[in-house]
Every structure is written in structure tokens, then in C-alpha cells.
Amino acid sequence: MKILAVKGTRDFYPPQMAVRNWIADGWKAASRRSGFEEFDGPIFEYLQMYQIKSGDEIVEQLFHLTDRGGRDLAIRPEITPTLARMVNQQISALPRPIKWFSIPRLCRAERPQKGRLREFFQWNIDIIGEESIVADAEVIFCTIDYLRSTGLTPKDVVAKISSRKLLAALLKNLGIAEDKLPVLYPILDKKSKIPAEAFEEILKKEIPDAATVNTILKLMDLHSTDKIASLVNLNEDAKMALAQLQELFKTLDAMGVGDYCRFDMSIVRGLAYYTGMVFEIHDAVGDLRAVCGGGRYDNLLKDFGGPAMTAVGMGMGDCVLEILLRERGILKDDTLPTKTLDYFIAVADTTLAPKAVELAAQIRLAGLSCEFSYKSAALGKQLKQASAFNARKTIILGQELTSANQLVVKDMTVGTQTKVDESQFLADLQKTPDGADDTHKKG
Amino acid sequence: MKILAVKGTRDFYPPQMAVRNWIADGWKAASRRSGFEEFDGPIFEYLQMYQIKSGDEIVEQLFHLTDRGGRDLAIRPEITPTLARMVNQQISALPRPIKWFSIPRLCRAERPQKGRLREFFQWNIDIIGEESIVADAEVIFCTIDYLRSTGLTPKDVVAKISSRKLLAALLKNLGIAEDKLPVLYPILDKKSKIPAEAFEEILKKEIPDAATVNTILKLMDLHSTDKIASLVNLNEDAKMALAQLQELFKTLDAMGVGDYCRFDMSIVRGLAYYTGMVFEIHDAVGDLRAVCGGGRYDNLLKDFGGPAMTAVGMGMGDCVLEILLRERGILKDDTLPTKTLDYFIAVADTTLAPKAVELAAQIRLAGLSCEFSYKSAALGKQLKQASAFNARKTIILGQELTSANQLVVKDMTVGTQTKVDESQFLADLQKTPDGADDTHKKG
After folding, report:
1. Measured between alpha carbons, how far is B81 from B64 in angstroms, rounded to an integer?
2. pLDDT digits 0-9 by tens, A71-89
């Protein structure tokens, strides 16, 4: 019976797993550099949780099920609702600001396409309980710090930043009613995703006045905060939001990542829940989907039964990122080893095979990695296997061992061979050598 | 609207996440010491896949769903079927033996109880395509190597090892028909889980002859392979299986883990798919469920539409393990930090707050971790925060900076303070210092 994987999911064979780990390790390292602590929740939650944040339309985009107890559950499509639930549960015990990151596995019942799969991993960072612009800057900085660490430069990626608060104030000044905004945001968010004519068409349907539409179109094209005042009169709210945004850019400059950042009024984000700064990072030259997006959201904790508390966060999926890293030549198929060894043990004399098993075990128990060939094979073939496994050193068991209790140790990088007394080698193993993996000693 | 987590799942707040990571890091390190390569599959597969391996009864133990396309899917309750599917798909391209490990998130729709949750993580190691006893020894060794690395000794855990092949040959010699074996295995597997009388009762129902039942009961109590021949005549199959088992114990002795290992005929494993060596590791003194279990299985790849190929593997869940590690005092609530920092920046003069943001960014961009206080606070309070974050060093920005461009660097371990020219500090940052996280430079 031949069974296949479900469409839109991925099998991670060791080479693909090495790429996934490399991406996740980079995310973790960047998170920790900026002081974020890791959390995670369950892979499924009550279906209702996602309806609260995204409305009933979300249901058909979810993998949902009813368990034996009759509970309606869903595999998580995002982790932000879980974050809100968890923070609310311990709200009085958690020191603030809460700076958490997570790398959840997420599932969405969408039609698989380029950069969008049914199962994926998403880096999330969130700062909860800090309203100053420094928190906005920290989230954008940490995101850029990761991208920079992979080798992506301002020529490759651009962080497009705007403010929902500013946009709301400007639209209000243009005579648009506040209750119209939730309808308008998803439309404005489509600007870069659809042809200009189509965008204008949709906008005209919502806003009858041609002059207003014209001003909005001009606003959407702005890449400098200085020019806003020439298009719309700034009321107090707009002035305050603009000052905050300018302060944010100043901070990002001071943090050394200003050359990645750009004001872009057309960044709106579709979701209703953003309330302040919004940003997306895009491929600077290609036409990929956004690499990541985020912003400030003030109402989510309250919507989940908690107190009113401000938050700012970012989510970056692995699919578009991996495509971009491959397009830029940063990620190549053969750059990441699936296995590296401290030692490989080769046997020049088959009667010494049991000795190889014994010595490998001693090396491993000392905290180093080691392998040997399960089958007897010519020495040359065993050395090839050692190379394929990226062994740093190969120990050759042969007549030196039987006649003089010596191991022949071959350095696989430079190719030199040295003889070492077995007893000395074993004694040296006990002094935790450089490069030994001692994660297990932490507890 | 207050929403709860689903019963039987866990929320991993940073302290719980630190424990989960510590366990997983230990599993990964042990796997890599023994040369296993990491793989993973999707969180859901076709429901049918689990029915092939475990029969239709498995369905009600699964979280299963029908997607919009009408496909019957299930959240994976184990990863072995995925392993079989993946290996079959690339069978001609994969070099053998295949030595893979994985740490899948798994879900089972069971009633939650001590050591058994609806969602858990399970370490899996498998060697496919190697029939020699060395592969059996490697799997058991790697498992023990991990447990030993946490600090568990032979006084804490015992690996109980037996052989399905041996058991089958002995039962055959006792006059039990081969087609009776699949019924008998799950019964014999219950021996240590139910009272002796109840076990005897069930056994008598299946085997009418009292003398045979008596011999089986004696066999089940054996802890030495030497005594088998005094209970049952050994046919050729039994002799061969016994010789293999004795060779396995000899190998485990030579590998230095013999004192963890013990022959135990009552280890049978319930699942039908084991065909050779079987083992379980148990808490040596308490009455916890098995910490892990495994064995040799020869037919799984074939059952999934692939070639006949032998395999040996092991699975260890995180729930029982964590209970055991806590009972032994190896894992304590306060041993694992949720955050460590290379630097914390404290501000003695609030006008220097923007400087803290700037300097923190420079430190992070150089690959080190750094934080600062978002709110202005007394210096003492900031230093307390630095301690709470496990900062190795705290940089104090004060009058030394304004008057002489100097940073005050406090070593948080020994408490000493030194003054460093800011320019010198920044120049030193560029030489990747010891302890810098450079995972991001691997690509």
C-alpha cells in the first residue's frame, strides 16, 4: 500500500531539516540577542479562539475538528491568540514588559502556492505592556538584525513602515467617517498587490468624492513623512502620530538599521486589529510576498477577556524567506552539512571491529560524536565514509594497535597522521575537550 | 471572552519552555554523538496511514478530521509511519544504513493522566537497513547515553531487554501455535502492569494446559539467559535467538553501558510489529510507566509499499521522563534560566537613555545579547534587573561617559568595575568575542 504526504505539507529529509534548523537557529539567536524569551502553546486550541480575533470567515481557512468530547478544535493558523490567552492567564504574575518569541508550526487550509503552504513555521516576537516608541523600534530592529545576520543587505530587503494612527487621522481630515475605516484598511492594503487601475476602481466604489480619492492615491505613494502636510491639513492627532513616526525613524537610525527602513504610507496591513505602527519587510527587487509583517495592537488582550494592554509584534514565515535566501544565493543546497563528527573510526584489520565499537562508545560517553562502519570494508572506502560524514578526525585501528597499543589519528582537514598511545588518548578524552557538546550538563 | 487551553495540552511559558528545550537539546546532542541525522514530517498525514500500522481501533485514539477536499486526515500520534513513508519514497537514493532521529510533536485523543497527555514530544531514533546486532546495540547505547548524560545512573533506570524471536521459539517449543502469538504478545506485555493473579487468570483463558502456563510464568520471571534451557528445550531457532541476545549483552558491556542493562523475558511490547530484540527502560525504584521502548521491526517498510528491510528503533516521550528527572532532583524549577545576557546597559543619568538604545543595538549587531531598561529607574533597580536577566556584565552610562567618553563595565559574577574607553569597547566588539552566537554565519 503506497501512501503519499498530504498536498501542501513538507517532508524534512536531513538536508531539508538542516535548512529548517539553520533558519530557526538564526531566528532564535536574533531573538536572544535582543532579550526575547521563548514560549510556545499547544498545536490545537478551541476553534472559537480564532473566531474572536478574525471573525467567522476564518473557519474555512482552518483545519478544524470535533473531538470525542464534542469540542470544536482547530490546528493553530497563528500563535497570537495563544499568546493573548497565555498572557491573560498569568497577567498579574508576569513582570512587564513581556518580551517573548516563538517559532510555532502553523497550518492553514489554503490552496498551496509559491511561498504559501498548508503547513509552515513562523517566527514571532512580541513586546507586551510597553507603549513607548522604543518597543516599536526594538521589534523592527530585531527583525532586521536577523535578516542582516543571514547576509541580506539594504539592497536585498526593505522595511516599509507606516502608522495606522496617522492614516486614520489623515483620512478623518479628508472627511471619511471613523466607522468606514475597518472597511477601508483591507482595500488600501491591496494597493501593492493589484494593478493600479483596479485599485483605483475599488477605492472609487467606497469613496464617491473624486478629489478625496485623488489625495488618498497621492498619500499612498508617499515615501517621505515631510510631504504629508502638503497633501492634507494635519490635525492634532495627525501631528502626534507623525511626530511618533519620525521619532521611530530617528531611533532606527541611531540603532544602525536606518538604511533598511523607509516610510511607506501604502503599508496598511489587512487585519483590523492593528492600532499604531505597522510595517512589512519586502524583497527590494523582486515581487515576492512580504517576508514578514507586524505592528502595534492595543486591543487583543482585552478581546480575550484580559485587561487593556498595548502590544507590538512581528511574524515571519519560513517559506517566502527561504525562497528569498535561495534567490540571493545565501542558501545553497550543499552549504549545510546533515552530519558532522568529531571522530570516525576506521578498521584496517577486520578482527579489530569490536574494538571500534568499544572505542566509539567511550568517545561518545566523553561527550564527543563518533561513528564507525557497520560493515567491513576496505580502508579507502572507510576514509571516504569519514569524509562524507564530515569527520574532523579519523582514528585508524591497525597493526599499530595490536603491536604497540597505538591509535593512528588522521586530521581530515590537513591530512596529517599522528600516532597516539591508546591510554593517553582515553585519558585526554576525560578532560572535556574544546567543541564537546555539553548541553546535557546544564541541568 | 475568557478562553482556556484544551485539556491535556500544555502551555509553555518561558520557564516550561526552558525545560522542554533542555530535554530536547539533550536528545539532539545524544543523537548527534552517535551519528544520527535529524528528520521530520508533517503534523498531519492521511488517516489511512495509521490504520495500516495499527488497525482500525487506532482511529478513536486519534485527532482526525476531514479537510475541505474531503480527505481524511489525522494529527500524527507517532512518527514511525511517516518515517516508513519517507524512506520508501527515496529508498534508492538514500545511503544505508539510514540513521535518523526526530523529536516530533505528537497528539493522542486519550484521557489525560500522570505521564500521559494529549499532546507531547517524543524522541525517536531509528537505524534502517542494518541487520547486525551492532545496530540493536547502537540504539540501546544511544538511549542510555542520553539518560546517563542527564545524571541518571544504573540505580535510577534499568534497560530491560528481551527478544521476540527467542520468545516465539520458546512458545513454539511449548506447543503454542504460531498464529496464536499475535494474541499472546499483548497479554504477556501486560504482566508488569496488572496484579499477578489477574495476569495468570488471563493467561489461563488463552492457554488451557496448566503446566504450559506454569512454565510461561517462570520464563517471564527470568533475569538471566543462562536459566532458559532449564525450563524449555531449545530448538535451533531458540538457540540462534539466544546467541544473538547474549552477543547483544556482550556488546553493550563492551560499550560501557552494561550496568544499565538486564535481561527480562517479560518485556514483550504490545505492538504486533516487533520482530526481534525488544526493550524498555524503566524507573528502577518507582512505579512510573516505561520511560521509553523500542526494538527491531522487519516488516514496516514493506507494509507501506516498500521493499522488505530490517529496522531497529526507539521512542521516548517527554512526560514520564520529566516526572522521573524531577523525582530524582535532576530537574528543579529554578535551575534553568529563561534569559541570559552578555550585557545589560544601565543608565545613571536619564538624558543618556537614547545612548543606551544605540549602544545595545551596536552590541547586538556584533552578535552578542544585550538589553536595557525601557523605563527610567534608579540605578540600583536597573542593576537588579540586570541580575534577574542573568547578565554577565552591566555597562553603566553616567558622568564618566559625558566627561571622558568612558563606559563603566561591571562584571556581574565577581562584582568588579572597570572603566573602558567607548571607542576601544566598540573596536573590541568587532573581533567576534568568545561566546558570541554565530549560528547565523554558518550559511
Report:
1. 16
2. 999 999 999 999 999 999 9
User: Is 0.85 exceeded by the ipTM?
Assistant: yes
**What global pTM score does this model have?**
0.95
**A440 with B73: Cβ contact below 8 A:** no
Task: Decide if B25 and A1 are in contact by the 8 Å CB cutoff.
Answer: no
Fold exhibited by the domain A341-441:
Rossmann fold (3.40.50)
Report the residue of chain A nearest B59, measured CA to CA: A68
A3 Cα distance to chain centroid: 31
A75 touches chain B (CB under 8 A): yes
Output the CATH code of domain B341-434. 3.40.50.800
Q: Pairing mode, if any, of strands A391-397 and B406-411? A: unpaired
- Cβ contact A79:A93 at 8 Å: no
| CB < 8 Å to B119, chain A | 42-44
Closest approach of chain A CAs to the CA of B411, in angstroms? 19
pLDDT at site A395: 98
B87: nearest CA partner in chain A: A13
- Whether domain A14-41+76-327 has CATH 2.60.40.790: the reply is no
**DSSP element (H, E) containing B82:** helix B80-89
Residue B438 pLDDT > 50, yes or no?
no
* Mean confidence (pLDDT) of chain B: 93
Concatenating the DSSP letter of every residue in B251-295 gives: HHHHTT-GGGEEE-TT---S-TT--SEEEEEEESSS-PPPSEEEE
Query: How do A311-317 and B64-66 pair as beta strands?
Result: unpaired
A250 to chain B: nearest residue by CA? B354
A34–B107: do the CB atoms touch at under 8 Å? no
pLDDT tens profile B147-175: 999 999 999 999 999 999 999 999 999 99
Distances (CA, A) of B148 to A341, B126, B330: 20, 20, 11
Nearest chain A residue to B339 by CA: give it. A37
The domain locations on chain B are 14-41+76-327, 341-434
- Report helix, strand or coil for B116: strand
> CB contact, 8 Å: A152 with chain B?
no
DSSP assigned state of A69: T
Same topology, domains A14-41+76-327 and A341-441? Answer is no
The model's pLDDT over B12-41, given as tens digits with 9 standing for 90+, comes to 999 999 999 999 999 999 999 999 999 999
A251 pLDDT more than 90 = yes
Q: B255 and A357 in contact by Cβ < 8 A? A: yes
What are the helix (H) ranges across A190-262?
Answer: 196-206, 210-220, 228-231, 236-254
Kindly state the DSSP code that residue B313 receives in the 8-state scheme.
E
Tell the burial category of B391 from Cβ atoms under 10 Å away from its Cβ (0-12, 13-18, 19+).
buried
Q: Alpha-carbon distance B263 to B85, whole Å?
A: 33
